[in-house]
């Protein structure tokens, strides 16, 4: 607590207590760590957790230029599912979904994980064919996926408009019952609390600006608070990754786009599942508190401003009312934007770099919240062993040279 000096105005907030340590501590950075993780979003924090839990590594710093979990982790619409088309994607997202199913217990913190199922609507014959193909691919990968007809869509979500008399009538949907939502802030706080208890240093308000190198090794990071030595450096900085790797001459093919979301005023529980539609382009779920949570696609331009353009919201609202006429009189409460890191094949980049102890995790685009525990686990393995975990092998940076892309563009309706 900072005392007010007589005659001088108090700094706003100075009368408040220091950050409560029962959540996590705000330590003074040490000169060296075994592992420095750049980025204190969900992925950085989850990586620290699994380094501690599975590999016994605790001399770790997570360096965050803002506040913990204040980037995309705080801005996403929290959809969790694993019904992706390609084997490599299905495997990593299903691994993650299984970890979600035990995460509350693992972290000993309520994260409000609610498995309420996701419907990906089909509105055209082409949608129907694509949906059947994805359901069969999912089943082969052991994922709970089924094709449901229009009547079953109505049973699962009674307020959806199944009339055949609309612009895009619903012809059926894919359904993944184990999909769901969780409370994103709680997930971030839960990981932060857990790793802080284990001795991991969470260093906020500190920006990594470059690297210290010796030959083909990175030996530390440069920050706006001085240099910090590192045995290994793991990048979990989402769209800012390429600005960091550029300083080492490593080109990472990600583009950062605005992605917006919005919530309505609080309503009674009217929407029991998650509904996504690519054709009209919107997805909707209802948060525990009662807001309808909606999102759509990215703004077409690139940039790091956390805001998008109005026409996206307007289209999204029109699409929502088309699917759910009952929402026509609901009020929009709040809109916001994030910056998502999009790769040419809409799949993440996780793994090694030309520097033997520098590791990459980025490019999760519009869909990385659901991957949080899964990628934390496999990224930690990759860092601890120095070689890519089986599940991340297909997602290496080298695929943009070899051409082995994992093209998930549009493969699972709206890509969240
Ligand atoms: C509107 C919106 C809706 C979304 N909806 C969904 C969804 O429903 N389901 C889903 O699965 N995903 C969704 N996503 C995507 C998801 O939010 C991201 O993929 C995921 O949060 C990425 O996690 P992260 O930890 O990599 O990134 P972030 O949470 O963004 O963390 C990266 C951190 O790195 C920090 N950083 C950057 N540069 C530096 C530096 N130089 N030094 C130190 N720190 C640095 C940043 O401040 C940031 O905190 C959505 C995203 C948005 C914006």
Automatic annotation (TrEMBL):
UniProt region (Disordered), positions on chain: 1-21
Keyword terms: Cytoplasm, Nucleotide-binding, Oxidoreductase
EC number: 1.5.3.1
Enzyme class: oxidoreductase
Signal sequence annotation: none
Molecular function as annotated in GO: nucleotide binding; sarcosine oxidase activity
Residues covered by the FAD dependent oxidoreductase domain: 34-381
Any GO CC annotation of this UniProt entry: cytoplasm
Listed GO biological process terms: tetrahydrofolate metabolic process
InterPro entries, per database record: FAD-dep_OxRdtase (IPR006076), FAD/NAD-bd_sf (IPR036188), SoxB (IPR006278)
Subcellular location: Cytoplasm
PANTHER family: FAD-DEPENDENT OXIDOREDUCTASE DOMAIN-CONTAINING PROTEIN 1, SARCOSINE DEHYDROGENASE-RELATED
Identification of the protein by name: Sarcosine oxidase subunit beta
